[in-house]
Design brief:
By secondary structure, the protein is mainly beta. It is 2% helix and 45% strand. Strands 1-55-54-53 form a four-stranded antiparallel sheet, with no helix packed on it. It has a four-stranded antiparallel sheet with strand order 2-3-4-5, with no helix packed on it.
Amino acid sequence: MAFGTVFGAFGAVPAGAEPVAPADPPTSLTTRGNEWRQVGPNGSGGKLAFTPARPARAYVLTPIGNVVFRTDDRGTTWQQGNALPVNATDAGGVAASPVRPDVVFAAGVERDHWRGYVLRSTDAGRTFSQVLDTPDRVSGVVFDPTGARLYATAGDGVRISTDHGNTWRLLPGAPTDARNPKFTGSDLYFTSGADVWVLRQGARTPVKLPRPGSTGARVDQFTGTGGTLVARGDLQVAQVSTDRGAHWRALRGPWGTDVVVLAAIVDGSGRLHIQVNRSTGEMEQWGSRDNGRTWRAEAGLDRIDLYEATGTFPGRPGTDVISAGAGIYTTDDHQSFRRIGVPGSEVLSLTVTRGASGPAIVAGTMTGSYQSSAPLKRQLPLGYQEWGFSDTAPHTFGNRVDGLATDPSNPSTVYRVRNTCNDEQPCFYLEKSTDAGRRWTTLQTAVPGKALAISVSPADPKRLYVATHSPSAVYTSNDGGESLVQNGHDDLNGFTSVAVDRVDPDSAWLGGPDGLFRTTDGGVTLHKVLDGWVSAIALNPRTPGHAVIAARDAIYVTTDDGKHLTKVAGDLTGYLGSLTFSPDGSTVFAGSHYYHTPALGVLRSTDGGRTWGSITRNLPEPSVSSLTVSADGRWLFAGTTYGSVHRLAV
């Protein structure tokens, strides 16, 4: 969306003034007052749904299928719905009523019994209730253009509802293993195995169309616009029909035949797009405006990665909305892209920094790290959830950032540990930024182990600690990461947290499955302080010797550097994966993460950790993976499992 369009939607902005995010519309999921607000970063794709009843609205169901986001301004801002009433494991699809824009359905598979479900919301995605439970997965849900009928493709066939999900019946004649429902005009297309089926307007039963291709491969990706259909099943070739499925032909072009077809779609304007991987390893994308007679190179693979889903905002058929692995994007030409959503990333680590433009926050996710100064502003500027798209496809594998640490003496310097390699032979990269987390330099490559925490000594900014498992080790550096020393502890099951003493750089705390440990010689030897799983450690930045430790179902406090530990909050049922003090040491916060037990959200203590109360409030999901507080103590940031970062005025 061009800047003129954005500014035009909300009125003129005075010269020299920073555009401010508009007030939330009446149906907003956020609330006023001292409550949580979703602040980004955009970094997740998902299933897409649009409604002509509100052309600027879109819904996104993220890949796992347990979070629905909504925008009412074509992606400038997003609101996250509350937790769904199912334990989802796979998104089946999302559908918005074409006549009642606040009515939206989400479908998928739940993980407890692997049953399919359809959920309904009548409040624009804020809350959902279950309206269909099936023995097998539900892989898609779609409205007909009139909004009178709702269809769900499932393992046992196609379900139809004519009363907005209250009752369902099986569509007569529909095959089992139904997938990929899609309306083009008034015709409903769907796939089953290697076949494409259609329910024509006015027909009572669907018919099977001629099979696209001859290999018998299951159709995994299916799109259609008007009379043009594209089916991708066989990995060597995609098929196109320009006569509503009566005839099919293989898509051929400059990419040749010795390729793997990664994605093939027809967009809202009827243009064809294909993404391939050559046997030489080159990945290419091509587009055609004349049904495949001529092709031109496109930049989608380089810019945003694989095309996983596509759609258009009503009234804008020439602008495609593309869902990829790390975002939702708009494009007019498939050469340049603008990321518009969605803030559905898992935020594994957080830190606050200070760059040339002032304070900023860095979030470590499964697809790298994101940086922005917008969430620290009292008035959030326009587009505050987009933390900076670099015009390059984010790496969706081998780019997991579990640990971030800011140099206390120089807050523009940040370190991160990026986990890559694989589960059998884990390794990490140690990287450094000197511009508050915008650009990174690699210091160490392919270091053995999965790194889950990093800490910088407040007394010596050159002293770094990295905690790993597989192997179980404490890595240290005395030169700001230019070299690393591995201190192995093979008798233990690894470490998940580390905190360095504020005065002595040789003294640190380490936690993991085997308990809480202290070292006074830089990680060479360890002294056990506490048995049991220790998941997080926070040291008071103002009071030496004061530490708060999160263990399995309990919190411990010490005021004498670990000589004595007091167990508090021993009745907790959640897994506390993160702890942080306010900069003045007066308050400590705990984040509860889903780990075999329900999450508790965010807890706060104002008496040094002895007593705790919940401040979860309106946080739409209680699973919190990371916490940090701004340097001025004004904002608390919670990195969540499925909804990026939320902030609270504290």
